[in-house]
Amino acid sequence: MKSRLVEEGPARTLVLGTLANSLGNGVFVTCSALYFTRIAGFTPAQLGLGLSIAGIAGLFAGVPFGHLADRRGPRGTAAALLVLAGLATGAYLLTDAYPLFIVFAFLYALFDRGAYAARQAMIPAVLEGENLVRVRAKIRVVTNVGVSAGAALGGLALLWDTGTAYRLTFLLNALSFVVCGLVFLRLPAVPPAPQRPPGEPRLAVLRDTPYALLAVLNMVMQLHIPILEVILPLWIALHTGAPHALTAVLLLLNTLACVGLQVPVTKKIDELRSAVRAFRVAGVALLGCCAAFALSSGRGPWAATVTLVVAAALHVYGEMVQSAGSWVIGYELAPPTKQGQYQGLFNTGIAAVQMFGPVSLTLLLIDWGTPGWLTLGAVFLVGGLAMAPAVRWAERRRAASAEAAPATVTAA
What we know:
Layout: H1 2-5, H2 10-39, H3 44-72, H4 74-91, H5 98-126, H6 132-160, H7 163-184, H8 209-221, H9 225-239, H10 246-265, H11 272-295, H12 301-332, H13 339-346, H14 348-367, H15 370-411
Helix pairs in contact: 2-6, 2-7, 3-4, 3-5, 3-13, 3-14, 4-5, 4-7, 5-13, 6-7, 6-10, 8-12, 8-14, 8-15, 9-10, 9-14, 10-12, 11-12, 11-15, 14-15
């Protein structure tokens, strides 16, 4: 781990800060639902409504906070927002009143997603001359490691099953945000972006239609996220004869594959052409994943287990190459002085998928069954193939903007 992931320099600081934060997030995700329902006394319906309202903040936080990172400097902005997210987590423990819970959940989502946008703007700024995709791959690896370790700690709290145990997990998550922010302050200072030219809109990304299309296609491909987390256990229980414990095995294999293979998979995905190719490969792999899930319907224990293992293998491979391709496309086609707002928009898809994906995929896949899987597979294939013309359009837009910039400066 030390030799492969924690090298010297800014990359090491980014990796260690991310590891601390993901450890706290793993604990929080494992225990938060039970705390809110059993200790705070909210009903499951109240909890779902509150988190959905907070999700709205996550959807719209990326672009404005990313713009703030551009204007004020991404390092300080990311650190401040991480500390605020930690304070919002700790504030959950101060009340069991439902209206205040909604306020704190809204603030937590706002600061958390805003910090994520600022962090994505900070990465290329502090890693000048290094392989961004390789470092992003290592960050994804330690995120999986941290969340898994945090889930194990959360499991201990679940075994203890007391209010004190659950509150300690919240404090640990709050501390992880603060530690991550303080670690990031050790990174090199990043100057703010220069003033925008006269006449240029404040949030230029909202008028960049080609880049918005890239963000939408990336969001479509990220529909793979709820498949293992939400759909897999329901599909196994309701549509196959596979043992229910297979869910835990496949989730563990997914995590281990990401930890062991994400960095090697990204080695040849380092420029736009290879990133476009990665999206095509991801589309085909995820189509195969959906077809394997469809084939497992109605199968007995052994046949269903083998088919689901194949589906999970195709899923994790498609997930890894899609992630690597998205890092290249998201960074390369964003203006260097506006990485914050552009990364804020590009990564809004994660919040959208987390908010709407479970419900929509449950209706499509669990209720509709095999036709739903084939439909989703076709969506993945179209999304992967459509990235190539979308990238070409964005490249033409970027070239035209570069040619127009000198004329604008001269006129000013």
